[in-house]
Write a structure and sequence with these properties.
about 230 residues, globular, Rossmann fold, alpha/beta, nine-stranded mixed sheet
C-alpha cells in the first residue's frame, strides 16, 4: 500500500511551539499522515516530539508515546509541561525488542478508540538496528519495518491521528566524503508525508530542515535554540 495523498483541507495540525516552523508547516504537524524526524544524537528530536505531545495533551487529546530509547523521563516531561495534570492523558510504553514493537503497533488501534490522537515512536529504528546481521535477516527486518509503517499510516489515515516517528542517522560514504542518511534507508521516507532533518549548528543551536512536505516541495530551514524548556 502506497502512502495516500489527501487534499490539504483534510488535515488538522499540532503546533510545535516554534512559530516560524509552524508557519512553514501551515500550522504545525499534520493529522492523518506520518511525520519523520531524523538526525544525530542530541539534536533535539525527542524534545520536538515532546513539545508536540504536550500541545496535544493541552487540547484534551490523549497520546501514546512509544519510547524505545528509554530516554523520556518524567522529570524531563514535567520540566517542559506547565501542569502535572496533563500527564494523566499520556501513556508511555517501552518495548524491549523489535518483535515487541511490532506487536505494539498491531494493537494500537484498540487505544485509538479511547481518544488517542497522537502516536509517537521514538526511536523507530533503535530496536531494528540492534538485530541487524546477516543479509537474509536484514531483508526480513526491512520487510517488517516496511509493514509496521504501512500499519501506522493506515491507522493515522483511517482515524485522523497524527503519527510522529523519530529516527537515527547512519554515515554513508559518497564521492565528497561521508554524509548522514536516515537509518533504514528510504523505507521511512517512503511512508512519511513530512520529513524534518535536525542537525547541530553551533553551541545550543539546532538547525531544522524541511526536506519533504506534501504541501510544499521547497526545501526550507530554520535555526532554533535548545533549552531546558524546549526548542525556541
Amino acid at each position: 500500500m502506497a502512502p495516500e495523498k489527501r487534499k490539504n483541507n483534510d488535515y488538522q495540525r499540532i503546533p510545535t511551539n516554534i512559530p516560524s516552523l509552524d508557519n512553514m508547516l501551515g500550522g504545525g504537524i499534520p493529522f492523518g499522515v506520518i511525520t519523520h524526524i531524523f538526525g544525530a544524537s542530541a539534536t533535539g528530536k525527542t524534545t520536538l516530539a515532546l513539545q508536540c505531545t504536550l500541545n496535544t495533551l493541552r487540547k484534551g487529546m490523549k497520546t501514546i508515546y512509544i519510547d524505545t530509547e528509554k530516554g523520556v523521563h518524567p522529570s524531563r516531561v514535567l520540566q517542559m509541561a506547565d501542569s502535572k495534570d496533563l500527564l494523566q492523558a499520556l501513556l508511555i510504553i517501552r518495548p524491549q525488542s523489535f518483535a515487541e514493537q511490532s506487536t505494539l503497533i498491531d494493537k494500537i488501534e484498540s487505544f485509538i478508540v479511547r481518544g488517542v490522537k497522537l502516536i509517537v515512536l521514538d526511536t523507530v529504528t533503535r530496536l531494528y538496528r540492534v538485530e541487524l546481521g546477516t543479509l537474509p535477516k536484514n531483508v526480513a527486518l526491512n520487510r517488517e519495518l516496511n509493514r509496521q509503517m504501512a500499519v501506522l499510516l493506515n491507522l493515522a489515515s483511517n482515524h485522523n491521528v497524527a503519527a510522529i516517528i523519530t529516527n537515527q542517522v547512519s554515515a554513508v560514504t559518497q564521492e565528497n566524503g561521508y554524509q548522514n542518511k536516515p537509518a533504514g534507508g528510504t523505507i521511512l521516507s517512503y511512508w512519511s508525508s513530512l520529513d524534518l532533518k535536525m542537525e547541530h549548528f553551533e553551541m545550543g543551536v539546532r538547525r531544522i530542515t524541511i526536506l519533504k512536505n506534501f504541501e510544499d516541495r521547497t526545501e526550507k530551514r530554520i535555526n532554533v535554540l535548545l533549552t531546558k524548556k524546549g526548542l525556541h
